[in-house]
Amino acid sequence: MISGRLEAARDKALSGDYAGAASTFANGWSLRWTQTFHPGYELRLSTPAMTTVNNFARVTDLRTGEAGHSWTDRYGVWKRHVFVSRADQVIVHELLPATGRTVDTTLSVNTALDGVPAGVSCATTAIVRNGDGYLNLRGTYPSGGAYGYEGATRVVATGTGASVTAGGSTLVVAKATKVLLLTMVLAGPDRPLQPPARLPSLRRLAAARDQPRGEARPRQVRPHGPGQARR
């Protein structure tokens, strides 16, 4: 479909006519509804009681697409793992405390990102249902383009006495022997097509991923392993 225009576009680019090359390549088509701000979902974990971090290490396993980091304090080794599952369309975090300790942390979504245009507005909520916490962010773009984007994180805390409580737009995890975070981010539809009320509820979608990390990880590993084995 574009092969017939490649030579003419290349000639214009080589002569310095980059705008003409782009126009020829696009065959008169122009971009519409693009935004100046890419969707941002910055999940923050605050652990003020964690005052000592020694032997910090970060490892990326290209065979599985998983990144992990660890550190030590006087109690032992603390670990965190993360991967982005293409199969389940979810970002999976696992937080593990040192032996005999628990994870105690406060989670929030930062909306004060660098370079955010003044016309972009964000709303965040935090709720707890059936023992699990849900952080939700809805970003709205200025008029004239796509409506916005949405992000949601499901917080699953396990262990005797573990709890998740909501306070304002934050979630507080206490006494957890393991914390699983399932995050999804999705751009919204074009403004002329759907109003904000019809943006999909990622909180519900995140809840549907009701499976432990051990089940999601094999589906994540399969696309990565064969490619790395050829190296």
Describe this structure in words.
- The protein folds into two domains: 1-30, no CATH class; 42-229, putative glycoside hydrolase family protein from bacillus halodurans (Beta-galactosidase, Chain A, domain 5).
- Mean pLDDT is 80; it is low at 190-202.
- The protein has helices at residues 3-14, 18-26, 202-208, 213-229; strands at 42-46, 54-61, 66-73, 76-85, 90-96, 103-110, 121-129, 132-140, 148-158, 163-167, 170-176, 178-187.
- The protein is built from four helices and twelve strands; from the N terminus they run H-H-E-E-E-E-E-E-E-E-E-E-E-E-H-H.
- A hairpin with a 2-residue loop joins strand 10 and strand 11.
- Helix content is 19%, strand content 42%.
- The strands form two sheets. An eight-stranded antiparallel β-sheet has the order 2-3-4-5-12-9-8-7, covered by helices on one side.
- It is α+β, with helices and mostly antiparallel strands and 231 residues long.
- The longest helix is centred in the C-terminal third of the chain and has 17 residues, at 213-229.
